[in-house]
Amino acid sequence: MKTKYFDLIDQTYDFPQEEFQLKDNNLEFHGIDLKGLIAEYGAPLKFTYLPKISDNIQRAQKWFAKSIKKHGYKGKYHYCYCTKSSHFQHVLNEALKNNIHIETSSAFDIDIVNHLKSKGKISKDTFVLCNGFKRDKYINNIADLINNGHENCIPIIDNYEELNLLQSNINGTFNVGIRIASEEEPKFEFYTSRLGIGYKNIVPFYNQSIKENEQVNLKMLHFFINTGIRDTAYYWNELLKCLKVYINLKRVCPTLDSLNIGGGFPIKNSLAFEYDYAYMIDEIINQINQACQEAKVDVPHIFTEFGSFTVGESGGAIYEVLYQKQQNDREKWNMINSSFITTLPDSWAINKRFILLAINRWNEEYERVLLGGLTCDSDDYYNSEQHMNAIYLPKYKKDKPLYIGFFNTGAYQESIGGYGGLQHCLIPAPKHILIDRDENGELTTKVFAEQQTSAKFMDILGYTK
Ligand SMILES: Cc1ncc(COP(=O)(O)O)c(C=O)c1O
């Protein structure tokens, strides 16, 4: 009978996969010897494998280039990185190697833009698309950037008042975009997104506030679907509605030349993940092309703002199973040496699933378990995988350490988890390792941050003042 953990994975999924291989019964991720990483740095740890960021950007750029060529599409494609998915310098430095642009969400993002500019990582030709609800500080920072000559900074109007606020702070003419408030999926808790301006109000807003306005050029229409870019009737329907607005606007607004379709590309959250990125891009280009040709308006340049897709698949978290508690006949709790709530907050807050695999002991028997975090919060657990209503791992043995890895965790988890700040039950944020490849393709590792210390907590909590 096949009862080894390897057999289970092998029978359930197509395994090995491009990024997941087995060597001596231990898991490798993109050729990284994870057991060796643990031997060197200990567990728990988080890591970022930087080359995956460039890899994904280049994949998307190629898919768009291919479809643009295939359809004879007359517009250009611009890849923007949505900084809120991970603001870290190492992430932006890697992403910016690939001739990309930036999308920002708040005032402090502009300080990052200025810093990157001072380091020569971005230039005044880099598009800086400013989304989000804009309060004074954000307006001032955007205005400073534009007043200092960054003409490719395009604030995306999220509410009517922003236009006046920008005009009072910016000296010359400037470009803007308008965000469409999309209609949410029928099963959602509300009908229309709070972000942006309703479909019906966009052309009237343009006619009333921008058309005769000598200081402002409307350049971009922005459209982001909360549920992401999916091959569903809902997505295609919303895209068509958006294209109608674009066409109506283009007929009265000659400066409009760009369509921003936001972020929302999914990432691999299971070994059974299937998504045809190239097909989706091809169909988007095709739909835009056709709609514009039928309406006899020029096609727009296309912008995307991929966050998860850029950085998600570069990250991982590794934990050690510390102990097993059997609370009844059926429920075995494997306790990890960290917390899910603080290190993978989306797993708790929005029930997000990541790829979960054992790192060692693949040739041993498996068992069904639940995973518990170290905080005393009953919600600090992980109990199923994306395509399996359970978790199976090699059997717990007191004298044989078991390590587990969560993969593709690189987007949003640090900012939502309040990286470097207070943590639930004061369970410290783990060590963070950066993994790269040198010019010969050899792997390199370095510590980005040590595990959080008690002194850090004591300081935040005011005990050292
Ligand atoms: C305006 C905008 N653009 C881009 C993104 C990035 O989305 P994702 O990480 O799904 O690519 C978001 C995410 O909330 C967003 O609100």
From TrEMBL:
GO terms for biological process: L-arginine catabolic process; spermidine biosynthetic process. It holds the Pfam family Orn_Arg_deC_N. Keywords: Pyridoxal phosphate. Residues 57-311 form the Orn/DAP/Arg decarboxylase 2 N-terminal domain. GO terms for molecular function: arginine decarboxylase activity. The keyword Transport does not apply. It comes from the Bacteria. Its cofactor is pyridoxal 5'-phosphate. CDD domains: PLPDE_III_ADC (cd06830). This is Arginine decarboxylase.
